[in-house]
């Protein structure tokens, strides 16, 4: 999540931060409530284990095979150990009278905690059904997509965009476009082409590389357009201009004094969604669905005819950056979404699909070592740039998705 | 007129719930929900149950629902541990032993309520009624007077007994809106960016003993076969990691304890059992010649058997000593699902209680006979046209067709101001 | 066997032997030529097979190369080298095999684990032997399949995009389509036999077209090929009892890349043409032989005219001479040895005739001399007393009348007795000289003998002499053609002789017995017997051992027996009596007809 504090109409960042805090508090409250819920069933299970093993020593292994959070599983294990001790059963690491393996499982109706107590060649099973307060967090069909990221390049200065074309990588930063070639498995800088704009760039600079035919590329910067030629030697030429930036199969005008798009799309939609930070296009059979992270902090769906805003609760944890890539999974396009947060937090990417009218998360979150500062689509992959919180370097990643096997 | 066309190889069990309903249903969380019965009570330590019938329900021929056809329908089902009689707008079940999970059992499709129309046909109370049959295909039309509200679509056309290739053609040429897909085709379908509905692993493949050969009467032989089977290979390669390996009759997401049963291949133990038995004549495992996947499974199992010294041959057709069978979860209630699965496998299913421990004990006892050897739990995959909206299926893959609607050809995303 | 027949036989044997020899040489030579041609055809077919194997192998290698170098395979190899999941490629072999029209295709990991198998999809994960080399030409291999095993032409290639590489093993099945694709000359066919564990099984044959019936008959050839250390084996298989249905087979062992025998190629060549040719040769030989024998007959017949007839005539003439016809003459034609022989024969017979005539004449003279001597002897005896008596009378003329009368009466009595004796002697001689021819009737010999015994009964027990006991041992015999009177005289004579031989009495035994074509009559006495000299001269006229008698009796007996075409023999030893054995034919006319014609 980028800190969107540059002339934002709605202080989405601050709002996001506030909301994030609210959410965290809620989660803390919820976890404490949950913790008290485990005491009784842990007690029951401990009694059953003690009844089966008898007083003495046991080795205890607890495995979480349910949707219980890791913290809750740890809490349950601690409760079990405590209850066993109170019941006269001492938990040791080896050479015990009995081996107890507890599996925190679940079924549709409830959690199911299963204890296998082995004494010599004999084995007993004890089960406790524990009521569940909400539906399992795992989607009905389970995560079906996995996000893969591959580090392309790291440098101290800000990377705006990068793309890989065969054995060549082109990387854009605030002052130059660099061409790299693959040698012995590593990218080697072949050339750096400096450029200067005729005006000052805004804060939170954004830039887009668009590969063209014949080994050329266009560079879109706020108020500046450049063209790079790499066919015979390297050459760059820039000019001032507000050409629309290509975003998917649409183009959008960028506010050259700001860090967002004006909201004008080409081809234009019947109803505008307003200025936006990021746009992802999803191909349907007869139209293109545009997903936009508005400057108003909301996520908009625009099919060129109608415009709709997704419920805030649905996109509460979405960041401002989107990229749609072809994921080779059902549903066609995967929409990569950064997570809510600010520049002091590590970011993550999740994949969503919009099979009908609502987005559905289809992947687990893929963490990054810092906030994602740029996210652009390049064909079947995306380029994500993150600032490593530990080193301070900017790291460009190639991001793709695969279907879960 | 909005008609959803579905093409498949058999009549999906979900259709049972479209024309005919049960007294109770199981929701997607596995909990009992009222259907034709609005409430139920148990007395006399579970020896007596009374189900209050819903008002305002009519059969498709217009006759109102009352205790009489309910009792008549349920009385026709043989070998049940209860006796049923009509009450005052209710039906009363009495038994000699407690039936704590009777309501869940009554949610099984075989206990759907029907009545005889004046033309001698069975009629139900469901959201759809059978309109016409044309060989393997039939059409259901919406029940305008359905107590739960008329469905959105006007009709459902079902094309059954369609070979997989024909189903694909139906879909490709827009002759069908919904088709079933084999789990091993899921990966390719996802790569082709097709619209899919994938359930939880709710369809279980078994190897069942279908011959009375003497060598198969020895439980050690059956156990050896079970231990020799490489389920992980079948799951990961043949089914391309779709679903999960099966060690129990019920998948873990339904029972919660399947992990307690062994599913790993243990060639050492299998060989030991085989050597205890001694040399046995050749055993055959049958597969459907029209199903290449089933053939590969049968041949793989034959190879596994060879690895432990059992002479096993895969044969096409129904004549094998072992056969591969697929059983879909009949219910989302574990007890009802276990009972229904055992029934479909031809295994005894008496006295299955609803507590998890008793379920575990019953399932374990059934598994230890090795009459039905679970292989994999597979998801039920449905491929859908874009115009089919609000498509949903239960975790077990049952199509919830009463909520479906069709978008127009040029439909856009709906707008809610 | 006559000379002509012997000659015919010799000529026939010579001609048949010659024809047979020629036919045998021709058939042997034809077989050699046929088998040489058959071997050449088989060699050519084997070369064709080898070329077809090579061509198929190159095609397989080319297709496997294409698969190994394809982008899809390279992607798979790269993915797997980077730890990708092999399960994603489990169906790739089937698709690639279909696309490249291969019957077998497997992708193997570097450790030999099967990534994907077109021919046995369920074998993924199982390990195959890692190929020793992933280059080179195609090779034969036996591939295990769910339904059994099959022979195939395989090639191996390594996909070197990654290191270590993955392997592509592809092949084409050697089945009936392969066999059908090879054009075979008429009368030839080829089978493939898949070797499985060295145990023969007719199900292991791969046959183009129809099912091979009676495949078990190929078992010896197949097993010989398997056991013969990989060398070719030849043999003949008789499918039915008809030799024309036989087939010559060459069994060529097929070895896999590891040197093990994986199959046998059987090339069969029908022997029908050869057998029919041999039959034809034999038929021709038989025909020629038959004509040869016919020619032999004709030649021998012609030769008979030239060679055997004079010889036969000579033989017949010799036989005629032997039968007593001395005056036999053979025609002399030509001047060759046969003519000389005939001439010599004629001279010989002439000499014999002259000699016989001289002999007859001398015998006549001797017989007349003997007769005269006998007559003189017989007559001398009575004549001497006649002379004495007459001389006595002359001397007694001077005696007184009474003495003269007495002497005259004694002398006249003596003269009359001697004259009667003379008359008897002369009567016997007269009887012998005019022995009549037999007047044949049906005569029962047993009755005749009984009458003779009855006739001489008083003499058997005559007073003053020891008795003679007659014994009749008469078997049932048929009647014969004979003259009863002559036979009466014969048997009476013999009985009298027997009585004369038993002056001290004894036993006279008369026996009859039926023989095949004759009846036998024996007259035995228990008298003094005969010495060998006496026995030799017994039937000589005038020989007698008795004190009186002319000695003509047994000669008359012999003459009568001879006239009856019978025979008489005597057995005797001194002191042990004598047995006269007479055999008379049952049918005298048949006996007469059976006699060789008298030549003369």
How many strand units of chain A? Answer: 29
Shape annotation of chain A: elongated
The CATH topology of the largest domain in chain A comes to: Neuraminidase
Number of domains of chain C: 4
State the CATH class of the largest domain in chain C. Alpha Beta
Description:
The complex is a heterotrimer of chains A (405), B (417) and C (600). With 405 residues, chain A is mainly beta. Chain A is built from two helices and 29 strands. The relative contact order of chain A is 0.13. Mean pLDDT of chain B is 86; it is low at 409-417. Among the domains of chain B are: 21-123, 3-Layer(aba) Sandwich (D-Maltodextrin-Binding Protein, domain 2), CATH 3.40.190; 200-344 and 353-379, Dipeptide-binding Protein, Domain 3 (Dipeptide-binding Protein, domain 3). In chain B, the strands form five sheets. In chain B, strands 1, 10, 11, 12, 13, 14, 15, 16, 17, 18 and 19 form an eleven-stranded mixed β-sheet that branches. In chain B, helix 7 (219-228) runs antiparallel to helix 10 (267-277). By secondary structure, chain C is α+β, with helices and mostly antiparallel strands. Chain C has four domains: 69-174, PAS domain (Beta-Lactamase); 175-270, Beta-Lactamase (2-Layer Sandwich), CATH 3.30.450.20; 337-432, no CATH class; 435-594, Heat Shock Protein 90, CATH 3.30.565. In chain C, the strands form four sheets. Chain C has a five-stranded antiparallel β-sheet. In chain C, strands 7-6-10-9-8 form a five-stranded antiparallel β-sheet, sandwiched between helices. The two termini of chain C are 28 Å apart. At the A-B interface, strand 3, strand 4, strand 5 and strand 22 of A face helix 5, strand 14, helix 9 and helix 13 of B.
